[in-house]
Amino acid sequence: MLPMTITPRAVAPVVLLMLLVTACAADSDEPTGTSATEAATAPATATPVTEVPATLAPEATDVPATAPLATETVPTEPPATDPDDIPAAWARIAPDAEDCACSDGSEFAFFERPAEPTKVMLYFEGGGACFSAETCDPVGGTYSPTITQTVTNLADRSGLFDVTNQLNPLADYSVVYVPYCTGDVHLGNATTEYSETLSIEHRGSANALAALDHLATAYPDAAELFVTGASAGSVPTPLIAGLASDLLPEANIVTFGDSSGAYPDVPAVNEVIGTLWGTTNAIPDWPENDGLTAADWSFPGLYIQAGIHDPDITFGRFDYAFDGVQATFGALAGIGADELVTLIDDTEAQVEAGGSPLASFVAPGSDHTIMGSDLVYELEVEGVKLIDWISFLVNGGVPDDVHCVECTGN
Whole-number mean pLDDT of the chain? Predict the structure, then answer.
């Protein structure tokens, strides 16, 4: 039984951020190389759910559904550069970890494209959320219960995945790509029964930690780490960056969250959704987290706690001012799309008031996500091109905020 019953209007706008607690990781004073998975608390099983929030409109994903996962590797088209700088083929990696799984219990795997060993991008895929019998329905739910990505599709990705574009500041980066198949924004840690016939494995945190542990092992000399994700995949980026700083303390770590900046901090929702997903079973074992509860964790809180844990992390994010997907959640809570940009501004203010500087780029429009599109090279706001802003971020700078002057909330 849930600790409380909440209405759809309270749940919808924050369903992707209330879980805001991520998997346990090595304490900040652990020796370099300590496994984040080893330092995590044991997975827990949630009690059956008898009162659940109402259906949530599906979150748009930056990766379309595709055929079943392939196991072959497909060479990427090389850029016109020195042959030694050409990234290798994408490969699929199934981690050897008992607690890794997709929501239906099927095998979890992540993908890797080796390139420059001292520069690495860790990317989290987006695509919906699952928190009730209806939304977790494997047929008509709001997320994918299995991995839909393939090495073939990854080789064809555009935007910041395009190694042939000379404007891409990440073209020579090695990439670890984390698919999304758990419905918990990569941060859950529980088996939850939503009905007598439906049990969901919310193992997003275990999957994320397996990918992070692989990255730390495969790239021990990483000097530059870019932690990023789109939509649901952008939610865990601050906490993952904090966990990464435990494993790679010498690396310069930058985050870039694409399209989730409008979700506010609502303690009651944080607690209810956190219970469903088991996020309280995976709070990082950091001194600054002592005494915090599920209700204290929010999307803005992820930035705040990670910034306290490692003040050297650079945080950045992008949002469309009237993002249609985020506006859908807001509308269910009685917040009009013309007010969405106010929520974006408010969450940034909360993060910075908590002591974590946050570079923000807000563009006009109602689109959702940009980093997987070639629009990332074309978009310009107030005389600043987004790709130049991202390049400055990637190269260790802290860019000024960019905010479309015509984008104002009521």
Answer: 81
110 half-sphere exposure, CB direction, 13 A CA radius: 27
**Residue 122 clears pLDDT 60, i.e. is over it:** yes
pLDDT of the residue at 76: 41
DSSP symbol at 118: E
Q: Determine contact, residues 40/53, Cβ cutoff 8 Å.
A: no
CB 121 within 8 A of CB 168: no
Least confident of 84-93, 104-113, 143-152, 175-184: 84-93
Q: Find the helix or strand (DSSP H, E) in which 351 lies.
A: helix 340-353
In angstroms, rounded to a whole number, what is the distance separating the alpha carbons of residues 238 and 202? 20
Query: 202 and 96 in contact (C-beta within 8 Å)?
Result: no
Domains of the chain: 8-403 (3.40.50.1820)
pTM: 0.82
- Among residues 293, 208, 146, the alpha carbon closest in space to that of 22 is found at 208
Please state, in angstroms and as integers, the Cα–Cα distance from residue 233 to each residue in 166, 188, 327, following that order: 26, 13, 18
Query: DSSP letters of 276-305?
Result: HHTGGGG----GGGTT--GGG--HHHHHHH
Nearest-angstrom CA–CA distance, 162 and 44: 39
Separation between Cα atoms, residue 22 and residue 281, nearest integer Å: 8
In the predicted structure, residue 302 carries a pLDDT above the cut 80: yes
- Residue 196 to residues 47, 132, 139, 141, 193: CA-CA distances in angstroms? 12, 13, 17, 17, 7
Phi and psi torsions of 164, nearest 5°: -90, -10
